[in-house]
Amino acid sequence: MKFLILNGPNLNLLGTRETSIYGNQDFSSFFEELKSNFPQFQLDYFQSNIEGEIINKLHEVGFSFDGIILNAGAYTHTSVAIGDAVKAITTPVVEVHISNTFSRETFRHQSYISPNAKGVIIGFGLDSYTLALKSFL
């Protein structure tokens, strides 16, 4: 089975960015742990700070992969286009967030992705990605 983890803006700074919210671990080391914990799956990873690149990646894999784990970062709350891209593809998408977005600023309570996602996992740190992957089993 093939899965893509797709991260949006500023998630390339995990491990150094607001560690009180996002933790101390960088995503590349976490991704290596995830791959070793799920050797039966092909796991791919893509991160972009650019909205159009995220949409292009959804279009690229959205008809051939078994699942997509999407943390669109702040685009979650602003991008109708990413929400539309999730709606347009056939591969199921699980929306994830490292922090509990509902305990943060009010604008983070709205998601343009959630209505089109298979499910949403929020607030379990990097374990949100593990839980999302397990949801496909």
Give the overall pLDDT as a whole number.
92
- Count every helix, treating DSSP H or I runs of 4 or more residues as helices: 5
Oligomer: single chain
Helix content: 25-40%
Beta-strand content estimate: 15-25%
The second-level CATH architecture is 3-Layer(aba) Sandwich
Question: How many domains, in number, for the residues?
Answer: 1
Specify the structural class.
Answer: alpha/beta
* Global morphology: globular
N to C succession of SSEs:
EHHEHEHEEH
Strand order of the largest sheet: 2-1-3-4-5
Radius of gyration: 14 Å
The CATH homology group name: Dehydroquinase, class II
Structural features:
137 residues; alpha/beta; Rossmann fold; 5-stranded parallel β-sheet; 5 helices; DHquinase_II_sf; aromatic amino acid biosynthesis; 3-dehydroquinate dehydratase; lyase
Describe this entry's structure for a reader.
Pathway: Metabolic intermediate biosynthesis; chorismate biosynthesis; chorismate from D-erythrose 4-phosphate and phosphoenolpyruvate: step 3/7. Catalyzes a trans-dehydration via an enolate intermediate. Substrate binds at residues 71, 77, 84, 98-99, 108. With 137 residues, the chain is α/β, with parallel strands linked by helices. The protein has one domain (2-135): 3-Layer(aba) Sandwich (Rossmann fold), CATH 3.40.50.9100. The protein is built from 5 helices and 5 strands; from the N terminus they run βααβαβαββα. Strands 2-1-3-4-5 form a 5-stranded parallel sheet, with helices on both faces. Helix 4 links the parallel strand 3 (67-71) and strand 4 (93-97). The model has no long low-confidence stretch (mean pLDDT 92).
